[in-house]
Amino acid sequence: CGGAIYFTDTPVLPPTKFGPDTKQGAIIEATVDMGHMAEMGPMCNATFGRSLGAARRHGYDSVRFNPGDGDKYVISSAR
Length: 79
Known about the structure:
- The radius of gyration is 13 Å and the shape is globular.
- It is built from 1 helix and 6 strands, in the order E-E-E-E-H-E-E.
- The longest helix is centred in the last third of the chain and has 6 residues, at 52-57.
- By secondary structure, the protein is mainly beta.
- It has one helix at 52-57, and strands at 5-8, 37-39, 45-46, 49-50, 62-65, 72-75.
- The strands form 2 sheets. Strands 1-6-5-2 form a 4-stranded mixed beta sheet.
């Protein structure tokens, strides 16, 4: 989805997100106001375009998509 802050709804980091040096990952619990959320496909795509930028251009503040290893929530700042 591009440069942004990514969240997941589970306290377990999927192995598909581990880098070559990752042993366990790090989890931070947070409460986040997602604003107006777009539902996008597994490639971060929707009828209005692809990426968080496309979602923002159509009035969305955040995105939910599942690339195949669980839901991801993406937010960005207009600043």
